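Before the break, one more example. Copy the sequence into your notebook; we will annotate it together after we see the structure.
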Amino acid sequence: MRTGASAKVRTDIGAGRGGGVRATCRALASALRVDLNYLFGDGVMQYPIMFLMPFAFLVVFQDRAFIEDFGYTLAVSMEVFSCTALIVSMAVVDVQSGYRLRALMPVLRRTQVLARYVMGVALAVLASVMIVLLNLLQSYVISDWSVMANMPTAGWGLLIVLLVVAVYVPLSYLWNSANGLQVSLLVLYLVFVVGIMSWNEISGGITSGMLHAFGFAFPHMALFAVAAVAVTIAIYVASYLISVRIYQRKEW
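Here is what the structure looks like once it is written out:
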């Protein structure tokens, strides 16, 4: 049992019992700083390249030799993947270090998990902003491109990143191998790419027929969007609770 100053530090910084909102915020900020240190440990130069490369692909793949709007679809996929890959980077560092830094932090485990989910929200917002910029660039590349009609893509991108984070983070706490973490993300990414490419490919056939059959959903698109957001939030919260349960039982 901790006594004296160490117990006080543990309670105040980790917001264990009676630490209050300010103590919780300090603990969360400490955990977030660790995640940011993981991301920027090798410098920041790789990130502009990572997030700007999709813009180059959008312009290069505009000949529609593959599928309609292939460049835009590829660019959106790359932005989503880039943001989710950063979650993997933090998890890989944890595994490679054997969670030694985590074990030494005067922050409760549930707060450390919360920081990872807060980071996931921030990355989802970043992905959404980048997709908006891709949408604007696409309007300059293709004269008949409708910015407003394609703006919901940014919202769906945000939800997709949140869902990938919700699925991946519990897995990251289960894995004790960096290879396993990377393979898990690759599988999720392939499922996403195949899904979005297939949607575009059959949009004039099977999918069109399905949408026509369920055309009653279109007058209630706002309600559908609200439901999608609500379901995503519920999954995200459930994922956080599962991750806390896994992480609290994890042996160093």
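Residues 1-18, 203-216 have pLDDT under 50 and may be disordered. Residues 10 and 55 are 46 Å apart (CA to CA). Try to locate both features in your own notes.
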